[in-house]
Structures are given as C-alpha cells and as structure tokens.
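Quick note —
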Amino acid sequence: MKISTWNVNGIRAREAQILDWLERETPDVLCLQEIKASPADVPPRLGNLPAYWHYWHGHKGYSGVGMYLARATFPARPAFGHPAFDVENRVVTIELGDVTLASIYAPNGNRDYPAKLRFFADLDDWVAGAHAAGRKLILCGDLNIARTPMDVHPKLRKPTDIGQTPEEQAVLERLLGHGLVDLGRKFDPLNDRLFTWWAPWRNLRERNIGWRLDYVLVSEPLAPRALACGAEREFGTSDHGPVTAHFSDPLFPVSVSVSVSVNVPVPVPVPVSVSEKPPSPQLSLFDDPPRRR
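Predicted structure written out below.
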C-alpha cells in the first residue's frame, strides 16, 4: 500500500501536476491540503478519474483539504467525515474497521497564534480519544510545525519564529505521545536536510534550504508494516513537496462496507503548497518579503 500527502497550495494551479502524480505514482491514497477551492471550483478533470474515489472539503481562496482513494483498494466508497472541532475545512477523515485515516492542514499561526494552539489542543483531544478507544490512526498532512531544530535548515533556525517555537514543538510531541510514530524520522532519523517546504525565492528549494512541516504519522501497531517514507523535493511547483509512505500490505479491511455520507462532494489531490497565511517572520534572514501563510 502506498499513501501520499501533498500541500498543493491551490488545487487549480496544480491540476496537471496532481493528474501527473496519480498516473505516475498510482498511490492507494492521496491526501491533499490547502486546496483553496470549494467543491464547485475544483477543476472537473480532477473529479472524473475512473480509478479513484475523491472528496473535497474547502472554500474559495483559503485552507481546504481533499482525498483520493483508489477503487481497487477501496471497492466501496467510504463515508467521509470531519471531527467536530474542524470549523475551517482543515480535516477530512475516513473510518474503515478499526483504522481512521485523516488529511490535515493545521493553521500556520502567523495571523492568529492562539487559534493555532486551540486547533492543536482539539486535535490532541481527538487523537487521545481515538487512541483510548483502540482505533489505529494514519494522520497525513501539513502540520505547520517543525518537530525539532533538526527539521529546519541551520540558516533558518530561530526558535522565536512561529512554526519552530519550543511551545509548538512540545505540542507536536504531546500529539505523538498518543502512540503515534513519525515515519519520516523512523526511516531517516539523522538526516538534517530532510525538508518538505521551501520559501519560493532565492532558489531555496534547489539549494534545499527549508523546513520539514509535512508528516505521515501512524499508530504504533501499523508502524512495523511501513517499508519507507520520503519526500520529493523536485516534483511540482508548490512550495511543498509530496511525502509518500510505503507499506508491506493493505492497512484497511477492504471487505468492510460503508455507506456514502450524504453531503459528500467529489475532490482530487496531489502536489505541494503555501497559501492563505499572512507575512511570516520565519525567513527574516532574507531581504525579500516573506510570502508563506
């Protein structure tokens, strides 16, 4: 089984690249973040793929998540849902058997840092509840926190910048404490150039001067079935790169039959992103005005 996640920073701008990723990589699951489009605004080609179920959860110009599920892996269309705390189109989930899969786009926090902390407090409660109930979790997406100083290029490390403060890193560690494994670090624990987001100027992406903000987190019982997890710096024009995890076998009970949710639109996913957020102090090292939101 192959699961990809990608902050596309605008699904309409990345339409061709999403189609390219699906054709080239044929993932069983593709989670998208920052689609910045309502279901009605998603390009029609992204919703007319015979090989995939799709779902969009967004509104024009801001936030938004989506998900593609391969029909060969999921014969019946799963029911898509959202946790009660999701009030900004930031989380979409499916539940099959005892496994919950989520595509998550956390707030950046530059515009409203307390709101970011509230989002993570609610996410933490949701994850803790699922863990206590014995559910296995697969959490994919842009969490907008660099887990440790090693997850930011040395030239950009500044613990007072939002996204790498000790407070935020503690929040992420608390989330991981609910029996979750960071697959990126599981397979590449010492790599201090393992990044997934690069500011879109001064050739930072080509020079690999970035942050690691995108994750695949899985419950401990699923982690031994993971074979690899890596990021693609050279694919797409989003400011994020796709992250893909490979597993030795399907993680979902495909025989489970689930009904379609009543208000289920049809979406698509793929490449990297940056978007709606206000100017960020995190790249004060450079003269150019920060653009990440």
